[in-house]
Write a structure and sequence with these properties.
Layout: H1 2-16, E1 22-26, E2 30-35, E3 38-50, E4 53-62, E5 72-76, E6 79-93, H2 98-133, H3 146-191, E7 198-208, E8 212-235, E9 242-252, E10 258-266, E11 299-306, E12 316-319, E13 325-327, E14 333-337, E15 344-348, E16 355-358, E17 366-368, E18 379-381, E19 384-386, E20 424-425, E21 430-433, E22 438-440, E23 447-456, E24 459-465, E25 469-479, E26 489-495, E27 498-505, E28 513-520, E29 524-530, E30 536-540, E31 543-556, E32 562-569, E33 579-584, E34 589-590, E35 596-603, E36 608-620
Parallel strand pairs: 1-4, 2-10, 8-26, 11-17, 24-32
Antiparallel strand pairs: 2-3, 3-8, 4-7, 5-8, 6-7, 8-9, 9-23, 10-21, 10-22, 11-14, 12-13, 12-15, 15-16, 18-19, 20-21, 24-25, 25-28, 26-27, 29-31, 30-31, 31-36, 32-35, 33-36, 34-35
Helix pairs in contact: 2-3
């Protein structure tokens, strides 16, 4: 009877106080990384020895910037994943790199030296004050002879000189130490931010049907990483193909190094909304204003600083809604090429609140504020997620495994032996994959990786609008460009073995033919002048008639024949009482709706072509009309 009572009490207490889970700490390595335009997906794989029953696996030393909702766990074998949650460990701080630790040691040593010099300065000031207060020699009833006065003067002069020289030396030493301190602080800023971060942890509650070794795969999206494309466009001359070098500019400061990982670059952005846009009713009113365009050029530059106006080197600047981006230099300065329809720029930096600002001019300086990290636990059940404050509250479920792509792609490093490359083209994005192991440290430094090189057949043509700009621009027309899976980005132009500037490769609005501007060619000269002999004003009955005449001269100073397009215009009347009569176009084709005149011709080496444009405008003589 006593035995039965003890058994019943044991069952009751076992129900009231559930069995405690065994907790096991797991240290793992990053095996695969897919870098998105913003963020990256990290995959870690680890074999774990488990006893039969329920265990909590704590994956430690992870990034503190994990997106909790993105955590996925896959387990192989007779084991069930019951719940998953992400948390931060504020006790065990992220381990600092040896380079950072060395710089901090140097910084502390400099601070000690500066404090020592400041103490010496204080002593010198006390000595100077003591000397000045005791300059008076002799008493009230004591006469001072010339010898005593001379000795006192010599002593005071020599002592004062020595103290002042020491003060100058101390000031110079402190100035030099402060310069060294500033340089070390700038170097530290290129490695990491000033802020200390906790470590990330993922808690996985599992139930093993039997003891054994089980393979686990965890993946998650992490912030403070990303890449954007850029290009080098090289053209030796207008008779050879264009060489286009496709580059990825990648950096990460996720607080976890990617050592010898299987690396991919993806054109997708997991943060972009997938909700389709909707049109709103367009209400027109007499008081409505037409749109205004404040951007005066296609280049925006400026400086990114923190709340104390200190430079933020390595901050990311992106054109909102595109993949066009750049990073700030050591002084926090940036310069970025802007497409015509761009409206916003986004600014981000590790440990700071990102900002998205409207483009208001060609110079934009931005201050970023430090961000406060928030903990958001997520419990994964089946294929959905549920918030929970306790692991034990999670319902039993199995995590969906990650879909894997077995296609192979290789990328050529900027300073390495070229590798053969290929691309994975999905329905929604394009991926570039490196077959060989690749390492990117969490140092906030930007790396440029040559992903692919294309030889593009092109049709070259010169283009000029002398009314706006008298320089001739070389345009390369590329057909079948879609097969290269290009993304919009800045491009450095090299023509005839010389760097000629930057252009914008914007494929978002390209048609069947992609036009690449290779910049200005000074060997094609263009001039446009008003012909005064044909510029007249006369009265005809109730009408007034004004004539305008322009002459454009194009000269080919190159050693090869060129194809040329020249554009000009005549005014277009919006009233019946205003008549525009085009008299001379030198064979140009007129667009009756826009007034554009287009000349397209071939020009031999050393040859020149003269284009005359003359038109007359007739309107009522009692009205005034401004004619160019």
């Amino acid at each position: 009877m006593k035995t039965i009572s003890i058994l019943i009490l044991s069952l009751i207490f076992s129900n009231l106080y559930p069995q405690e889970f065994t907790e096991k700490e797991i240290k793992s390595e990053v095996n695969e990384v897919t870098v998105f335009i913003e963020g990256a997906q990290i995959t870690r794989k680890k074999k774990v020895e488990l006893a039969q029953g329920k265990t909590i696996l704590k994956f430690v030393n992870l990034s503190p910037f994990i997106d909790s909702k993105s955590v996925q766990v896959k387990a192989e074998g007779e084991v069930t994943v019951l719940s998953v949650n992400n948390q931060l460990n504020y006790i065990d701080k992220m381990q600092k790199s040896e380079e950072l630790q060395g710089l901090e040691k140097e910084l502390k040593s400099l601070d000690d030296k500066i404090r020592t010099e400041a103490t010496y300065q204080s002593i010198l000031r006390e000595e100077l004050l003591f000397l000045q207060e005791n300059r008076v020699i002799g008493g009230k009833n004591e006469q001072v002879n010339v010898l005593n006065l001379q000795q006192a003067s010599d002593f005071y002069s020599s002592k004062l000189t020595a103290l002042k020289m020491k003060e100058i030396e101390r000031n110079k030493t402190i100035e030099e130490l402060n310069i060294q301190k500033s340089n070390i602080q700038k170097q530290m800023n290129t490695i990491t931010s000033k802020k200390e971060f906790p470590t990330g942890e993922i808690m996985v509650k599992v139930d093993a049907k039997k003891a054994g070794s089980f393979s686990f795969e965890i993946s998650y999206i992490v912030g403070n990483a990303g890449w954007f494309p850029s290009y080098d466009i090289r053209a030796k001359n207008i008779n050879e193909d264009i060489q286009l070098i496709y580059k990825a500019n990648v950096k990460q400061d996720t607080k976890e190094d990617w050592n010898n990982v299987h690396l991919k670059f993806s054109s997708s952005d997991p943060k972009v909304s997938g909700v389709a846009p909707e049109l709103k009713t367009y209400y027109l009113n007499y008081n409505s204003m037409p749109p205004s365009y404040k951007l005066s050029s296609n280049m925006v530059s400026g400086r990114v600083t923190d709340s104390n106006w200190e430079a933020l080197p390595g901050a990311t600047v992106m054109v909102e809604g595109s993949r066009i981006g750049t990073v700030t230099d050591m002084a926090g300065n940036y310069s970025i090429t802007i497409p015509n329809n761009a409206a916003y720029l986004s600014y981000s930096f590790i440990g700071y609140e990102p900002q998205t600002l409207p483009i208001t001019g060609s110079i934009m300086n931005v201050n970023l504020n430090e961000s406060l990290m928030q903990l958001d636990e997520v419990v994964v059940m089946g294929y959905d997620t549920q918030k929970s404050s306790s692991v034990s509250e999670a319902l039993q479920g199995r995590m969906a495994g990650l879909a894997k792509n077995k296609s192979d792609i290789m990328i050529r490093g900027s300073n390495s032996i070229p590798l053969s490359t290929a691309q994975i083209e999905n329905k929604m994005s394009v991926e570039f994959e490196i077959k060989t192991a690749y390492t990117i440290k969490s140092d906030n430094k930007s790396y440029s990786v040559d992903m692919d090189v294309y030889e593009l057949p092109a049709i070259f043509q010169y283009y000029c609008v002398p009314k706006v700009d008298k320089d001739a621009f070389l345009i390369a027309n590329i057909i079948d460009w879609e097969q290269y899976n290009l993304l919009e980005g800045e491009a450095n132009i090299f023509f005839e073995e010389s760097y000629v500037g930057k252009t914008l490769l914007d494929v978002r609005y390209a048609s069947d033919t992609l036009e690449l501007s290779l910049g200005r060619d000074k060997k094609v000269s263009v001039s446009r002048e008003k012909l005064k002999d044909y510029t007249t004003k006369q009265f005809i009955g109730s009408k007034k008639e004004e004539t305008r005449a322009w002459q454009t001269i194009i000269k080919n100073n190159k050693s090869e024949q060129i194809s040329m397009i020249v554009l000009d215009q005549v005014p277009v009347s919006t009233l019946e009482e205003i008549e525009v009569n085009v008299q001379t176009t030198s064979g140009g084709k007129q667009n009756m709706e826009t007034g554009e005149i287009k000349w397209e011709f071939m020009l031999n080496p050393g040859a020149k072509k003269e284009i005359d444009l003359r038109y007359a405008v007739k309107y009522p003589k009692n009205r005034n009309l401004i004619i160019e």
